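Quick one: structure for this chain?
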Amino acid sequence: MSVVGPTKGTPSRPTRVRQPGPAPAERLVAVPCRGRRFELKLVAGEPLLAGIARCFADEGSAGGTVRLDGLAVAPFAYCMPAPPRDDRHAAFYSETFRPAGLSRFRAGAMTVGQRDDATAFHAHGIWQEADGTVHGGHVLADETIVAEDVVLAAYGIDGATFRADPDAETGFTVFGPVATDTRARDDDRESAHALRLRPNQDFATALEAFCRDRGIRRARIEGGVGSTIGAAFAGGEEILPFATEVFLADGRLVGGGGDVVQAMLDGGLVDMSGAVARGRLARGLNPVLMTFELVLVDETAG
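Got it. Here's what it folds into:
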């Protein structure tokens, strides 16, 4: 792993991490789509991945996002960000953790899409475990079971989905938006874009530029899962370890004077030490580490 340059005022935090593969010229991948919110009802005892697949199929959507707040799981498996094991990746995953008893999410987000023509998801969150400790990380889909009936807030998209494909730049298989056949003609679906941000660009300013280029004056974010190079919060708190697992709890872009569009992004994360943090992410100080995917809903006409 190679890092380049400190962030001003925080010499331990790099502004850029050199990835092992070539960087495509297109740094933000976007696919237009339409979407709507729906209630996602999971049943105690079902595998989390199977429950997600069932609910999105019932909604008639191949992809979208889910808020994980309040979800209880047991058994549960997760991992955290970790240093690279070799020169094929700039960072990697930790060992797998399997906490005893029931774990309940305080907050989290999930991207839902396809891998090998089957439903898959990418999810990060912060939760409280049965012994009262609070942890965060990357949810392992195949080893996590829903512990209690729950209704979660979800957003299903039509005309696009997120597909897991090998990514030469990072060396990982990552979600990216792809166009799909339009399934529904519902008038209540909103204009949206499925997005993926590639490494080494500030998260907030990349979204602001995307909106300005398309005349989007107001937007909200549904979902939001990815990683940043450490982190900086609006209150001044800095996360120095360079690898994080991040989710958005809330996100909006609002217009100001002239062509100004400003991102307001509230997120949570875990770093390589296992420390968790939440708050308003500072604009201009949070470059993407590996990837970030989300759905951006255009509210300009609303």
